[in-house]
Amino acid sequence: MLNFFRGNKKRQLFGLISPGALWILLFFNLPLLIMLFISFAERGRTGGIASPVVYTLENYKQFFNACVSQYAGPQCDPFLYLGIFGSSVRIAFVVTFFCILAGYPLAYFMARQKPLWRDTLMLLVIIPFWTNFLVRTYALKTVMSGEGLINTILMNLGLISAPLEMMFNEFGVIVGLVYGYLPFAVLPMYTSVEKFDHSLMEAAADLGAPPSRAFWRVMLPMTMPGVIAALVLVFVPVVGAFITPDIMGGGKVEMIGTLINRQFGVARNWPFGSAMSLILMVLVLLGVIYYFRSSSEETRRAM
Amino acid sequence: MNKILIYLLVLLVLPAMLLAACQPAAQTPAAPTAGGTDSGRCGDRSKLAKEIYLYNWTEYLDPDLKVKFEEECGVTVIETNFDSNESLLATLQAGGAEYDVIVPSDYMVQILIAEGYVMKLDYSVITNIKNMEALNVNQYFDPEQEYTVPWFWGTSGFAVDTSVVKEYTNSWSMLFDPNSPYCGKISMLKDERETIGAALMYLGYSINDTDPAHLEQAKTLLIEQSKCVKAYDSETNDDLIITGEIVLSHMWTGDALLASDPDTGGRADIAYVIPKEGCTIWQDNMAVPTTAPNAYTAMVFINYMQYPEIAAQNAVFVGYASPNKAAKAFIDPEMLANQGVYPPPEVEKTLQWIQDVGDALGLYDRIWTEFLAAVGS
What we know:
The complex is a heterodimer. Chain A is mainly alpha-helical. Chain A folds into two domains: 1-39; 56-302, MetI-like (MetI-like fold). Chain A has helices spanning 2-5, 9-39, 58-64, 80-111, 115-126, 133-144, 149-156, 170-195, 199-206, 211-222, 224-239, 243-248, 256-263, 270-302. In chain A, helix 2 (9-39) crosses helix 14 (270-302). The termini of chain A are far apart. The mean pLDDT of chain A is 89. Chain B is α/β, with parallel strands linked by helices. Chain B contains 14 helices and eleven strands. In chain B, the strands form three sheets. In chain B, strands 7-6-8-5-9 form a five-stranded mixed β-sheet. Chain B has a three-stranded parallel β-sheet with strand order 2-1-3. The longest helix of chain B is centred in the first third of the chain and has 21 residues, at 2-22. The radius of gyration of chain B is 24 Å and the shape is globular. Chain A binds chain B through residues 43, 45-47, 69-74, 77, 80-81, 83-84, 87, 141, 145-147, 168, 170, 250-254, 259, 262-263, 265-269, and chain B through 86, 89, 111, 114-115, 187, 190-193, 212, 216, 226, 229-233, 236, 243-245, 356, 358-359, 361-370, 372-373, 375-377.
């Protein structure tokens, strides 16, 4: 068996690649194909799809124009589902913005420390990852709820007379998501900032650039790859998030993720859920590609 | 060097210890059939298997009863738990899992029968079916009572924090009144059937109504109410009412019982109300999958669990309402007096089953999505 690979570079490469490739083929591409198939079928009564299979475009049409559905009411809003998608994108942008805003200085601070400190700080950023996301979100709930830690402290200090409404609304969802995804923003930006040659900032200063100008014209463009990686790593999962809006939003903040999740649960409408998942995937992919193209041009121009 | 040795020792010894700890205690001779007089509750002993596999909700069977059944009939009950009817269905659909007894809820029974996952029961074995209350048998999901034996049942009314809400009525208006003094301190279940259903019943319609105009009305009512609703929550609503964040909470009986029991971290001043306009009734039932390897033993087990003293012991352990009429003589009268758990006959008449509405489920989800979109904006 081993002789098959020995001394043959091509075969060795094949041997190394195939387990991973097979894995992706089997557990990523195949399910995706199944999803694609289901998205063109009709809903089965007990979940799954109706048999015999009837092919239909209904699930896709319905997403873009909610009024084509047989269930459309008299005051139907054609943008029902698109609107929910839109608000998910808006929430994801806000979350990404705050993750980068808070993450960049943190990444900068970490990168400027002595190696030992740097590793410790890195560990502190990573450690929360070792706890289940669901548990962390529930923990956050006990901190932010009406009878939670923050409100209790503020009330006891006499700073507020009634508890602040920090949860069960969009604010709570955004805080929960920023909290959950901040490390995803910090890590890639840290890598970029760490590689950045800080003598360039001195050079900019020598040439008369004030620190803010030096930052905008030199440091930020040169660390842009890290920022873009952070943007993608945060934005993409946040658009489709469903656990955080569920828990922190008190069921009142509908996002595309919670909508899709419901189709595979109580609504028992796998085809519509699959169609929406695929639409979400394609739209996000297009968005990311567009962003990559336009921003790399900008970066080039800036440099 | 020493360190490495110690690590190695720990690595070797620890799993061994864990394994030892995990060995079932009943490895010692299981002494079936032999010894003791026959209680007559074990059916034909020669046909009994040594063990049966029970797929059950958590905390739904007093462990002492498993021991008792094993001592009396010589059959070991191996219990695994599931957390939703959907995961039970998925397990059966995936195949390969050889359970002898499963415990699906009402609507899931209907699906399991339709899909051929459960077998007809032998009532020459399950003679205790005669002990059941009329309310709990021959319902829509098993009209001839051929496939299931009722296990526990309950409702979805609402819980009241009586330390704040001094005066309350048994009406959904406590939750739906737009001028409620408790506005902002109300929670509703997050479940399109339950929550839309509550609105439908408050409006005087059936919980299974599929008339788009009625559902539209229910949606309008829910949107109006949403100003006063702190959260739509089915999982942590009991915590919210215990901590006082909400004072009126649309809730399942089970959670209300936990919330009102100081032994489970609850508060005795939390009451549970079944609204007069109508209220969801649900029921969990024992059934035998068509693939059960030990169907006869499974039915003996189901019958055993419905002997009055046995059913009573389990009802006291679980806390939910027992469908077993004969068992009530053995249940603590104080428990029976709790009208939220054991409602009087006139209330029983107002209870409504959530039935599968078929394709109209799409309409429900549509209404629910429209409602959520309106609340979010």
